[in-house]
Amino acid sequence: MSKAPVLILGARSDIARAVAHKFADLGHPIQLAARNADRLQADKTDIELRYRVPVTLHEFDVLATEGHAEFVGALPALPGVAVCAVGLMGVQAENEQDMSAAVRVMRSNFEGPASILAVLANRFEDRGSGTLVGISSVAGDRGRATNYVYGSAKAGFTAFLSGLRNRLAKQGVHVITVLPGFVATQMTEGMDLPSRLTAQPDELAEAIARAVDRKKDVIYVRAVWWLVMLIIRSIPERVFKMTRI
Amino acid sequence: MKLAGWGRYPVIDAQLHTPRSEEALRDQVLHERSVIARGNGRAYGDSAINASATLHTKHLNRLIAFDPATGQVVAEAGVLLADLIEAFLPQGWFPLVTPGTKFVSIGGAIAADVHGKNHHIDGSFRSCVDWIDVMGADGKIERCSPVQNPALFDHTLGGMGLTGIILRACLRLRPVESGWIRQTTVTAPDLQAAMAAFEAAQDATYSVAWIDCLAQGAQLGRSLVMLGEHAKRTDLRAARRARPFEIQRRRKRTIPFDFPAVALNRYSVRAFNALYYQAGKRSRGEQIVDWDSYFYPLDAILDWNRIYGGKGFAQFQCVIPLAQAQDGLSALLREIAEAGSASFLAVLKRLGPQDSAFSFPMEGYTLALDFPVTATTLALLERLDEITLRHGGRFYLAKDSRMRADTLRAADPRVEAFCRSRVEMGAAPRFQSAQAERLGL
After folding, report:
1. Domain total of chain B
2. Engineered SS bond to B113: which of A182, B81, B141, B359, CB 3.0-4.6 Å?
3. For residue B220, is it within any domain?
4. Do B319 and B304 belong together in one domain?
């Protein structure tokens, strides 16, 4: 029996690439979606040669929300699993001064991802099956001075995923929220990250594939993050506002 | 950040870049004072470290093309041999030449012109390379092969990354009928017997010996010589014959912490060696083993480099020409046994003839050892250098982390010409590693 295709949204990122490889290794056809999709030709060939599964490329702009329904309609097959790996960190200092930059971060991390997953959710609901994976962030667990614009958008996305899961749980559609913590990617390159808290993209991909298989709801990639965030969330606001975490 | 090779010695504070595209890579080549490429960091010493800019090729690791009729594969330099095996062994293809770890990048294998257990038959990695794309100091990419830009090709193979950045290569794989190896173990009670076993096994596709470096006197050089052939489908029992490329995945073990420096000492290694030799004696005759256990026994223990403790270890590998091999090896083994330094890994191998611009192999016997880094062992390594020089031998740069520049020059008359070519092709001084600086290349 051939396996259901896996759609990767935001296919150019390090995490997306690792996730695509993981599902291809499990024998799933892969649909790679990103802006300038034709520039993913080398990745398509690479995955096809390594895993002998078909790979298709799809032009996709997360901010062009009006085109999302059409995008899903044009896919060669409705995927069994859709992974949204779209995200934009931005620069906090810039986001504080330039609202257009801040809006772009908010739209890229919340509005856009929510829009495309909403379209897919309805199609999955009609079919009565499917898994949606949203890669959100622990930054959404509590707003911090150092990245609250990004964090607030991720908070919105996390809440959206949680609500979607609640709505679709009885319709055969499963929703997974991924809270990766630090991951060694292009986004975090040059940052001085503690190695015990930092996952490799492969590790994240492995955790996502496992979560899909076992129908997990919310996953932290390294278990220690669950504890870290529990502590961060439970600091009283009165104290938290004076800290620099 | 702090960078080191697989031996974790020396540790150098270096700028590490991980370009995701050819353009990003070119930018660094053009704008940094000097650069060196780094594949998967499996060279033991400081070959792939440049303090001002080390360019990690881990993101440049795509397979580009494969011809299932001929086994010809085109890949970016960051692809590992492990990736090639995973992708193509199920279709009946295996690397033509492989070193003792599958975690080397193609770029690294070309730069070090690595050799395997079949060197006496198939030669070094060069034998499987059809062409290489190399980025020069001007950012331009040149394709080189034995007929196109042959000088660049000759100097890039074994050139330790000092001729430019290896971007892509076209390789030929070997057709195999299964993922299994027929292994025969020959016990050799001393060095002479071990060499005789190699000479008698010139037709064996693979041959390598584990050698007990702590054995002395009449037992000096006692070894287990392991010969191997790719198993044909008909060599396998029926259950395996149906799925000849499937092997049971070995559980990967990790070394969770640095062993204390005293864990490996002459007593523990001597005890291990004695047991291993006896076990080898018992398993004489033919066995069928899977490719992973046969070619890459140490890969099953991830981070095995931690067994030597936090200070790291130094590898030593030399080749002694055939005529002087017995004298040279005896002298080396005596020196090691007398020093009582525990080399956990000691490997002896007969190399076939090879004539190349700067590659390591030449006809003779190669001995590879490793030692924890201490003042005593560093002094011992100096003495081993001298013995090698006295017997007309030379040294493997992929293993080196501490040799002196004058030792290299004394050992290898090709150094001058190599340095000159580097200048002529515009590769010096832009492409430079900590090792090249130390050795004056």
Report:
1. 2
2. B359
3. yes
4. yes
Which CATH number is A6-240's, of 1.10.760.10, 3.90.550.10, 3.10.620.30, 3.40.50.720?
A: 3.40.50.720
Distance CA B224, CA B279 (A): 10
Predicted local distance difference test score (pLDDT) of residue B261 = 57
- Examine residue B55 and state whether it is found in any structural domain, yes or no: no
| Residue B417, both tokens | 């010409």
Tens-digit pLDDT profile for residues B98-122:
999 999 999 999 999 999 999 999 9
Cβ-based neighbour number of residue A169 at 10 Å: 12
CA distance B172 to chain A (A): 16
Tell me if residue A220 is catalytic: no
Range of the domain at B82: 63-177
- What DSSP line would sit under B123-155, residue for residue? -SGGGGEEEEEEE-TTS-EEEE-SSSSHHHHHH
Residue type, A142: R
List, in order, residues 6 or more apart from B12 with CB less than 8 Å away.
Answer: B2, B3, B4, B46, B49, B51, B434
The C-alpha angle with vertex A219 and arms to A218 and A220, in degrees rounded to 5, equals 135
Q: For an interface test with A, which of B2, B56, B61, B62 has the most A Cβ atoms less than 10 Å from its Cβ?
A: B62
Pick B66's closest partner by Cβ from A42, A49, A51: A49
Contacts of B20 in chain A (CB under 8 A): 186
**pLDDT tens per residue across all 441 residues of chain B:** 899 999 999 999 999 999 999 999 999 999 999 999 999 999 999 999 999 999 999 999 999 999 999 999 999 999 999 999 999 999 999 999 999 999 999 999 999 999 999 999 999 999 999 999 999 999 999 999 999 999 999 999 999 999 999 999 999 999 999 999 999 999 999 999 999 999 999 999 999 999 988 888 899 999 999 999 999 999 999 989 999 999 876 656 666 666 665 566 767 777 777 777 777 777 667 899 999 999 998 887 767 777 777 788 899 999 999 999 999 999 999 999 888 776 767 899 999 999 999 999 999 999 999 888 999 999 999 999 999 999 999 999 999 999 999 999 999 999 999 999 999 999 999 999 999 999 999
Which of B:64-103 have CB within 8 Å of A?
64-66, 83, 86-87
| Distances from the Cα of B23 to the Cα of B133, B148, B429, angstroms | 15, 24, 21
| Per-residue confidence band for A194, with pLDDT thresholds at 50, 70 and 90 | confident
Compute the CA torsion angle B39, B45, B51, B53 (nearest 10 deg).
-10
Q: Which residues of A touch B85 (CB under 8 A)?
A: none
CA distance B109 to B125: 7
Q: Which one of B62, B65, B86 has the shortest CB-CB distance to A43?
A: B62
Dump strand ranges (E) for B47-128: 54-56, 63-67, 72-76, 93-95
CA dist., res. B19 & res. B22, Å (int)? 8
Query: In this structure, is residue B27 part of a structural domain?
Result: no
Instruction: Enter the pTM of the model.
Output: 0.93
ipTM of the complex, rounded to two decimals:
0.90
Co-location of B147 and B290 in the same domain = no
Q: How far is A193 from chain B (nearest CA, A)?
A: 12
User: A45 and B65 in contact by Cβ < 8 A?
Assistant: yes
Rounded to a whole number of angstroms, the distance between the first and last alpha carbons of chain A is 50
- Measure CB to CB from residue B20 to each of A45, A51, A186 and give the nearest one: A186
